[in-house]
Amino acid sequence: MANIYCVGNWKMNKSPSEAAEFCLELEKKARQDEKTHLVVLPPAISSQSVAHALKPTSLRWGGQNCYFESHGAFTGETSPVVLKDLGATFCLVGHSERRQIFSEGDELLAKKLHSLQVLGVTPILCVGETLDDRKWNRTEEVVLRQLQNGLSQLESSKSFWIAYEPVWAIGTGQVATGEQVQEVHAMIRKFLQDNYGENGNGAVILYGGSVKPDNANWLAKIANVDGFLIGGASLKVDDFLQIYRQARG
Ligand code: PGA
User: Fold this and answer.
1) How many helices (H) does the chain have, and how many strands (E)?
2) 95 given a catalytic annotation
3) Residue 165 is a catalytic residue
4) Which of 7, 37, 192, 228 stands 20 to 30 A from 248 (CA)?
5) According to the model, what pLDDT value does residue 1 have?
6) How far is the CA of 170 from the centre of ligand 1 (A)?
7) What is the pLDDT of residue 67?
């Protein structure tokens, strides 16, 4: 049985009551041994309701984003300290929508990652090339740069995860080929091993981008794929669970 993690990125979906409803349904339908491998990432405003619904369970949750400062005059931002206080285990850093729509750069992302680690929240650094990058053979260069810069303040003895998401595969239904996933995940693993030794070897590397129940099985068999970051298909409990079960095989 493969040790696979499924992380559901709800993006800007689910109100507090919808989020709680999802959590209760997931708690009911998932078996005990599956729960520790499932993670949901609600929008910030629904975090408290998810935290409350999941508290008595072994299901885990995290943030989709946060700022690097703990408090102060940062209108509209989410504090990592508050995520921690509510019981978040994880937080995404640098999802491609944050990079592209909200212009977040590597320097900012490195600070966020550091703040989360200091608090004991596991950052999930997202990396991935655009379609243009791939067309011009810049995938390796772009992903390595994002790793190098995003992890520049990493404390490798503390927990951290990576998510490889080709931007062109996100929300498009166009999943990367097995060869593409294998190649980039191997490159990420090598980077982590070269720079952080055993800690890099143990870091979870997720794949994301149009993961669905019908492609999870073969994707999960690829070397260095330790799980998935799932957008659209994580919004329904049955699809989300189905992905996990297909992946675990
Ligand atoms: P998708 O999104 O599964 O809808 O392609 C993945 C993500 O953006 O994390």
Assistant:
1) 11, 8
2) yes
3) yes
4) 192
5) 52
6) 5
7) 98
